[in-house]
Design goal:
The complex is a heterotrimer of chains A (649), B (256) and C (277). Chain A has 649 residues and is of the alpha/beta class. Helix content of chain A is 36%, strand content 15%. The chains are: A alpha/beta (649), B alpha+beta (256), C mainly alpha (277). Chains A and B meet through helix 3, helix 4, helix 10, helix 14 and helix 16 of A and helix 1, helix 2 and helix 3 of B.
Chain lengths: 649, 256, 277
């Protein structure tokens, strides 16, 4: 059976968003032959959706900014649950990563003196986001894409082949990471266009597949965000960290229904947009939590003054971290003060002249005009929370981005956990991609081109992976180990299963969580898991979306279970995890990370029992924060987050 | 909220052949063509191949031809059609078809590779770049491009003449050349690379007869023809068709 | 289950283009349902009307001067056979050997300017040559080489016609100034014709300055606007005009024909120029 194409590479990067491309560039520049595999066309990755900017303390807009301030903001945003070393590296290296983009041709908006302009964003003390209008993600992905092309042109000059050292396999999907003993040995993938299987052999694999939003109904994420990397890592034996933390972006479109969830950038608020309820009240002033009381304006007048004079005024509460704003909007809608379509009003039309709005927020203007027939220069937008980002992810070593427990496996970007703690600040995602994408590429290349012998690919694993991938085509047929009754049922429609999964996660493990609902969700997930084994598809292997979805279901079910289990376990509210039954943040929980691992590491996915499931949860205590980093904070602030014993250690 | 049944014709098939198939499908308020295609997938044709990603007009994946016009499916609202109109959706007709609405857009990636990349100035390190807003604005407009390749699809130079694909980069990549030529810090000149001449000689700028279909179909509203292609043609004129310059270079060659 | 995924062999359709073998098998040259033919048809009709009118007037060699107005088709008048126009745009550069209408000498320049204009090129490539007739509508030609070869490569000399057009516009401005006289050449008068000439000259200048070559020359060719603030300002001004290049092209085409027609009416005695003062 294993007559699949095989190729040898040094480093394989799964995913071609910001992190994947940055990793590939680094690996190739360090001399490793690098292959990039991505589900979409090259340059279409979800990174293009990022609008606001890249957070980096370059200090162009406010000279007081430096990496320590950025580090502090990041830790506060993440409610101190961040893997502090990652937050430190991120804050220190982000400016270099941004400047480097300019040498590859990026054109950011400029300050008056010709430097990179920086804008305000939620949770950032100073204007910090390098941006290009509201299409920064597009600029980032295009710049990296063009840098890859530049490297390929160099290779072509030298070897006559553009793809001799760096190749992009576009519209291909990895379904399994292959292993040689403990170590990574390659990946098993299929090509969408033809449906053909192939194996890439390599000692190092960088996972950079982004997030899991497609498990939720209302999401700003595209179809690609099916948690592939999370699942691949789990299946390869690497644990996932803190999967309960899912960020609901406070401002997604709520109408019309077909675009529900599509993002409305935070820059709308950063540039002066305000949130109002149906009574016309700027309700955010009522939702400033104690830990942030000193940092935010108490009156509308002070908040408004801040845009002009940020040194002598406090920022308006519309710019609180995303979790706070999302919860506030949720509460307003629940209290019956929502907009006609179940959101709240986000208004720039009364705050800025129409011409300024069109210049500063061109794609938002365009988006609302085209999709909702709303002119944002004349009327308010209706917005509500939308599933946007997962803070949890593959547990990695802070410095090397190496996944725990699986030599040769690396993870960077949204798929990696730890960096953002319990809640990510806007703008920290793009910088995260660059900083840890580079680190993952660097260490993967060092590992792959190092002295160790190349691993070999096991034919049995390839055959098993091929059989698993082909199963949806024979869903009607008998499956060993299943009873007769099971066999006689018709195949399931993968689209229906997906919709049920999204509804379940949205309703039962959404923005506000309750114990009973999550238990219900786990039951439903177990049922879907059984039915998903019978997901059948029509047609053939050539570009068959039904088949692709059937395969992605495995991944979505795995990560959804991780989210639900971890959320059930964490009996407190923090950042992107809000429990109605445990509404307070508990200092004791700060030191605890929840790790998800596969219950049956031999790869069997049979576990249908909702109690046991496929995932085993363990809890571990984190390393104490380094004293010099702790010293960056005032004692009074630390008291709010850290347990007594941590303070005096 | 009102919904109705719309009549659709969707091209289905592959490189061996295919045809327009008729469908009747439900349409709700505020939906776009891509929603309808998704509804077809979920309810009638689970294997209908279509490329899409962001569904917000930002990634440029869902390019197709709707009633014969190159458009993004996610940005074409159903409300622009009459309720009794039959809506025809076909794949892009300038590129080889793969399956159903999915085409092989490899042409564009090959052309992208042939465009000489940005040349960083040798004397400036990272963080030392200083550029004025007015100097970056022209190239920034071109960098709004989401690479949906609708301009490449509609351009008759390659749409109607397959053989020209060898010699013509297409509006998207000629615009890329203009972008780099207008980049305030691009140092191509220092390395002996003349982008203006290259656009004319190697990438087929002369094939463009500025009939502006690229501009007409651009979902980002980039003024491809007026701001990129024509300025690039004018720059090439500076190099190649200015008789004074030409005479000067002849004389210099004689005397040396 | 799985099918053979090897790409099948393909043959080329004799028609090529959108019907090339590898492309989606659709035989219709286009599937547009709107009235796509309207724009090219209207363009062709408009241009044709102008060509017919201007040919007649250019070869007529008559009724082009009615003091103080000189037809823009005959200005400047460069042959001996030209009518003497008091202080008008006479310059006998060609002498007596030029035997046909003197309009032909000078019309070359505005004609060349408009023929190589980026807007008009679009208009007649679409309207007359059907290359393409409209977006995503297949063109009828088997091969296409665009502006890469003779004669169309000559479109690249547009900017020299632009320089010439500047001179012509200068002369027409002079003519407009002369129109502030009465029929006895006394200054400080105005008639309906003066108004026609004023409108025409404003549109001629607006069209000429909105030209893409002009936009390039005043600032478009620069790499750093920030180092040339005056030219940047000029470029911004020209860019704004350039955004209306099509509109100005048609408006000035109509106005120049009207100005000529007005002179014809007055010169031929069909109409008396109403004098304001």
């Amino acid at each position: 059976m294993s007559v699949v194409d095989r190729q040898e590479w040094d480093v394989i990067v799964v995913g071609a968003g910001g992190a994947g491309l940055r990793a590939a560039i680094e690996a190739r520049e360090r001399g490793a032959r690098t292959a990039v595999i991505c589900k979409s066309l090259f340059g279409k990755a979800h990174t293009v959706m990022a609008e606001g900017g890249i957070a980096a303390s370059m200090g162009n807009a406010n000279p007081h900014d430096n990496w320590q301030v950025h580090f502090r903001d990041t830790m506060r945003g993440g409610k101190f649950l961040n893997q502090w070393r990652m937050a430190e590296l991120h804050a220190r290296e982000a400016p270099d990563r941004v400047w480097e983009l300019e040498t590859w041709g990026a054109l950011f908006d400029r300050t008056k003196d010709g430097r990179i302009s920086q804008r305000n964003f939620g949770g950032h003390e100073y204007p910090r986001l390098a941006h290009v209008g509201d299409r920064t993600g597009l600029e980032l992905i295009r710049t990296l894409q063009q840098k890859i092309v530049a490297l390929q042109q160099e290779d072509e000059k030298e070897t006559g082949d553009y793809e001799s050292r760096l190749k992009v396999f576009q519209e291909c999907t990895v379904t399994r990471i292959l292993k040689d003993g403990d170590r990574v040995s390659g990946v098993f993938a299929y090509e969408r266009e033809s449906g053909r299987f192939f194996v890439l052999e390599a000692p190092a694999v960088v996972i950079a597949t982004g997030g899991i939003g497609k498990s939720f109904k209302v999401t700003s994420n595209s179809w690609e965000y099916t948690g592939d990397g999370h699942a691949l890592a789990l299946l390869a034996g690497a644990p996932l960290l803190n999967m309960e933390f899912v960020q609901f972006h406070p401002t997604g479109m709520v109408w019309p229904p077909s675009v529900k969830g599509i993002l409305v950038t935070e820059s709308v608020r950063g540039d002066g947009g305000v949130l109002r309820n149906s009574e016309g009240k700027r309700f955010m002033f009522d939702y400033i939590p104690d830990v942030f009381k000193e940092k935010y304006a108490e009156t509308e007048e002070e908040g408004d003054r801040w845009y002009e004079d940020p040194d002598n005024n406090r920022r308006p509460p519309e710019l609180l971290p995303r979790d706070e704003v999302a919860r506030a909007i949720n509460a307003e809608v629940k209290a019956g003060r929502g907009s006609p379509h179940g959101g709240v009003f986000l208004d720039v039309s009364t705050r800025m002249p129409a011409e300024v709005i069109r210049r500063r927020l061109p794609s938002m203007y365009h988006q609302f005009k085209e999709l909702a027939d709303v002119d944002i220069t004349a009327e308010a937008m209706e917005v509500g929370p939308t599933c946007h980002y997962v803070m949890g992810g593959v547990a990695v070593d802070s410095d090397t981005a190496a996944a725990r427990g699986v030599p040769g496996l690396y993870a960077a970007g949204e798929v990696a956990g730890g960096m953002h703690g319990s809640n990510r600040l806007g703008g920290n995602s793009l910088s995260d991609l660059l900083v840890f994408g580079r680190r993952a590429g660097l260490h993967a290349a060092q590992y792959a081109t190092g002295p160790t012998a190349r691993p070999t690919v096991d034919d049995v694993q390839v055959d098993t992976a091929a059989a698993e991938a082909l199963r949806p085509f024979s869903a009607e047929g008998p499956v060993p180990g299943e009873d007769i009754e099971e066999r006689s049922r018709p195949p399931e429609n993968p689209y229906t299963l997906h919709q049920e999964l999204q509804q379940t996660m949205n309703d039962l493990v959404g923005i506000i969580r309750r114990e009973s609902e999550m238990q219900q969700a786990l039951k439903k997930l177990a049922e879907l898991r059984v039915r998903a084994r019978r997901a059948g598809v029509e047609g053939h292997r050539q570009f068959n979306p039904g088949w692709h979805l059937a395969l992605d279901l495995r991944n979505m079910l795995l990560v959804s279970e991780c989210v639900a289990r971890a959320a059930l376990e964490r009996t407190e509210s923090r950042g992107g995890h809000t429990r109605e039954d445990y509404p307070a943040m508990e200092r004791a929980w700060r030191r605890l990370n929840l790790l998800c691992a596969l219950t049956d590491p031999t790869g069997g996915l049979a576990a249908t029992d909702p109690v046991r499931g496929q995932i085993t949860l363990t809890s571990e205590t984190t390393e104490p924060i380094r004293p010099d980093l702790l010293a960056l904070f005032e004692k009074e602030e630390l008291v709010k987050y850290l347990a007594e014993e941590e303070l005096y250690e | 909220m009102s919904s109705y049944k719309a009549r659709f014709k969707v091209w289905r098939g592959d490189v061996q052949g295919g045809d327009l198939e008729d469908f009747k499908v439900e349409v709700n308020d505020g939906e776009v063509v891509l929603d309808i295609i998704h509804r077809l997938q979920a309810t009638q044709t689970p294997d209908l191949a279509v490329r899409w990603n962001c569904k917000a007009g930002k990634c440029g994946s869902c390019s197709a031809e709707i009633n014969g016009r190159p458009r993004l499916m996610c940005m074409t609202r159903m409300s622009v059609f009459d309720r009794d109109e039959t809506i025809t959706v076909t794949p892009l007709r300038a590129f080889p078809v793969i399956r159903d609405l999915v085409t092989d857009v490899g042409f564009n990636y090959r052309k992208a590779r042939e465009i000489p990349s940005f040349v960083p100035p040798a004397d400036l390190g990272p963080g030392e770049y200083r550029m004025m807003q007015e100097d970056v604005e022209r190239s920034q407009e071109f960098r709004k491009c989401i690479e949906c390749f609708l301009c490449q699809d509609t351009c008759h130079v390659v749409r109607d003449h397959e053989e020209n694909k060898q010699v013509f980069a297409g509006p998207r990549f000629l615009m890329r050349m203009a972008e780099l030529d207008m980049h305030p810090l691009d140092a191509a000149d220092d390395t002996g690379l003349d982008r203006k001449r290259a656009a004319q000689d190697a990438h087929g700028l002369g094939y463009c007869n500025i009939t502006k279909c690229c501009t007409e179909v651009c979902p980002e509203g980039i003024h491809i023809t007026d701001n990129a292609l024509i300025p690039l043609k004018e720059r090439a004129v500076d190099r190649k068709y200015d008789p004074l310059v030409w005479l000067g270079s002849k004389i210099r060659r004689r005397s040396s | 289950m799985a099918t053979d995924t090897e790409p099948p062999g393909t043959e080329d359709h004799p028609l090529g283009g959108v019907r090339t073998g590898t492309r989606a098998a659709i035989t219709a040259p286009h599937l547009r349902t709107d009235r796509w033919w309207l724009a090219p048809a209207a363009t062709a009709a408009g241009l044709l009307a102008f060509v017919v009118y201007s040919t007649w007037r250019a070869f007529a060699d008559a009724d082009y001067y009615a003091a103080p107005y000189v037809s823009p088709f005959y200005s400047p008048c460069l042959a001996e056979r030209c009518r003497t126009m008091h202080a008008g745009p006479n310059a006998d550069l060609f002498g007596s050997w030029w035997g046909i209408s003197p309009a032909i000498i000078i019309l070359i320049f505005p004609l060349g300017f408009r023929l190589t204009c980026y807007y008009y090129r679009k208009a007649y490539y679409r309207g007359f040559w059907l290359s393409p007739p409209a977006c995503a509508v297949a063109e009828p030609h088997r091969t296409y080489s665009g502006e890469t070869r003779f004669p169309l490569i000559l479109q690249n000399i547009h900017r020299y016609f632009f320089y010439a057009a500047l001179l012509v516009a200068g002369v027409l401005t002079y003519d407009t100034v002369l129109a502030f006289r009465d029929e006895h050449y006394r200054w400080g008068h105005m008639g309906l014709g003066t108004l026609v000439f004023l409108v025409n000259i404003v549109l001629i200048w607006a069209y000429t300055l909105s030209c893409h070559s002009c936009r390039h020359i005043v600032g478009g060719k620069l790499k750093h606007f920030s180092k040339h603030p005056v030219r940047y300002g000029a470029w911004q001004f020209v860019s704004r005009l350039n955004g209306r290049h099509m509109l100005l092209a048609w408006a000035s085409l109509v106005s120049v024909a009207l100005a000529d027609f007005y002179v014809y009416l007055v010169a031929s005695g069909a109409f008396d120029d109403p004098r304001f003062f």
